[in-house]
Amino acid sequence: MQINTLRGLACVLLVLFHVVGNNSASGLRLPADHWLAQANAALAYLRMPLFAVIAGYVYAIRPVGPHWLTFAGGKLRRLLLPMLTLGTLFGLTQMATPGVNAQGEGSPLMMHIVPVGHLWFLQAMLLIFALTVVLERVRLLDTLASTLLVLVIATGLFALARVPHYFSFDGALFLLPFFIGGLAARRFKLNGRAGAAGAAFVLLVCLALLVDAPLERPVDAIVRICIGLAAAWLLFVARLRWAPLEWVGQHSYGIFLMHVFFTATTRIVMQKLGVDNLAVLVPLGVMAGVAGPVLVMRLLDHAPWLRMALLGEKLPAGARHAKPAPVAPLHHSHPRQDAGR
Fold first, then answer.
1. CB–CB of 218/160 below 8 Å?
2. Domain membership flag for residue 323
3. Which of 317, 269, 260 has the alpha carbon at shortest distance from 292?
4. Range of the domain at 152
5. CA distances for 250 relative to 5, 65, 183, angstroms
6. Global pTM?
7. Does the residue 299 lie in any domain?
8. For labeling, which of 64, 156, 250, 295 is most exposed (least CB within 10 Å)?
9. pLDDT along the chain (341 residues), means of 10
């Protein structure tokens, strides 16, 4: 339930990000000096890093075993299928719908080579899981010392390397330190209260560095990693539990995948109606971005094949072997033979 609370928090922050927008040409198109735009930008140090830390932590609970092909197949289904279905739908919608941010960006031929919107995260996680399988097989994640070495190398690569945006290689480099950090926290039980003071100290020092003067790479990149890891560590240590966020966390994957359809639609409708009050637009957009995907998931409860295609879920055993229900003769009147299925 604590993990679901953190998932819910990460989801709400992501939905808020797309409601507000990451610059003056997206979302609510706020000027860069608006307090809400500045707060939204500052949360970049926590938003996607928290998702990656949670992914690493959960992976450590059920790591890849000797049947790594089964593990790989599951990750491909869970990440690749939604990217190809919902990602393609979202990309085409962006290109065709007036009033949608990034309208016309890119080319259909480059779709998924150039990541589509927020779904860069899925491509990045596919690369990270592939690398994790290799690291596990060469036993570089077996001890705390070797895992911390991997974390340091991953941070250095993010700070120093220049990689293309294609297939989200840059996103994978950014998320890898956080994933390894979450894995280490679970595998070596590092998320106890003893490290909270150290994490708080690191967080305060890094924030002071940011406030003092603008930083350039590689220092800025290292500070970003430290802030994300320290903030996530403190959230884990706090053992937060809040029922509304737990509920959001239970539906986090569907919300992550589909929220953009509902935040954009809500914004466009409100603009057509002449509503420009932020006190209305922001909470309404967030609520639509959370509730809309949950409603779609409910509608798909009895469509396992669609849930697999859109959400990457595993087919229930019954759905895999289900046979068409027999058709009753027209001259008989009796209960449906497949009612119990």
1. yes
2. no
3. 260
4. 2-315
5. 9, 26, 21
6. 0.86
7. yes
8. 295
9. 92 95 84 90 92 95 87 91 90 71 59 86 95 94 95 94 88 96 90 74 85 79 92 89 94 94 92 90 95 95 90 77 50 41 37
